[in-house]
Amino acid sequence: MTKARLLRLSVVLVSIFMILLIIVYWDNVGTAHFYLHTSFSRPRSPGAIVAGEDWEALPDVDEFLAKLLSSSLKQNSSLPRKTEQLLVQGSNKPVVSNLEENVRGYDWSTHKDRNSLDQEKLQVERQRTLREFCANSSFTFPTKERSFDDIPNYELNHLIVDDRHGVIYCYVPKVACTNWKRVMIVLSESLLDQGVPYRNPLDIPREHVHNTSTHLTFNKFWRRYGKFSRHLMKIKLKKYTKFLFVRDPFVRLISAFRSKFELENEDFYRRFAIPMLKLYSNHTNLPTSVSEAFGAGLKVSFSDFIQYLLDPRTEKMAPFNEHWRQVYRLCHPCQIDYDFIGKLETLDEDAAYLLQLLKVDRLLRFPPSYRNRTASSWEDNWFAKIPLAWRQQLYKLYEADFVLFGYPKPENLLKD
Question: In degrees rounded to 5, what are phi and psi of residue 245?
């Protein structure tokens, strides 16, 4: 009898120890921060075709994690009323507190004449184009055929997650990403101002917006969730609303050049301008600071920039910088089934419609767009002095972005 009692006591103690161990482990990896949205609460485009509506398609491990994490929905799924009120207050009249925003100028028009039906049709067409070319075996480009599991963690650093509202945003530099990051900060409450979450996107300083510690991105999952990270990514990709914004690839290149090489940018001068000036303009003994270089009239030309992009040595040294890296390499559109595809050319309408679909339009408004954007009509002027052969090579380099996102081939730039 004594041995039987000891055996039972041992089993009970071991069970208690295991339960405590599991609790401590899940507390460490932060399951309290998971707010997995069900198919009833998840906002999405009416025209979107979303894979994985039900749990039965998930592998056993994913199903276990989903059920375990979903147990916290009752206590965590709704926004605190106090926070909700804070977000609403003042959102109707955004305050431009940043000098740069004041200088650039904004268009505050409300665009109340948007047609939601047209927006639905637009989304259906954009998603259809993307899926057709991803499935078209005759249209190929690097990384197209790999699976989501084959994507290295460091290539998932552009996927920002908001667990509070079930949203995943893939940011593309030079496509209104600063303001979309601001929106994600407001929604996720990942940044506080004097102990209170920001409620107006434009109040968030630019230096905080682009600080990598501000956002929860997919490439941080491994550090947080260890061997379960890929399973959790897949759960979120199935249940959350995923969106990105794109723009004409050549116009995006012009915008990147203007922003990083026509303005004084110390980091880009040292990392990119100095090598370009040495390789393609035969300059030596260049100044160490961008202000000295600009003062001496030493600036990278658009021709230098195009040569740099086409030079095979560039990618051998390091992957393209995110400001001119192709969208298909940043956001993996053939591996991730995006629910919403916005375009900078229709930013105001797309942004308003997306916030409605996410059911957060009462909490905030998207910051107004710049009055002076790099226009598509400028392409002819910018590429006028670029040799035809270079233009044709450049198109091949960015062809996937043109085709996947429905941008017409710039025939006028690719022929004599």
Answer: -125, 140
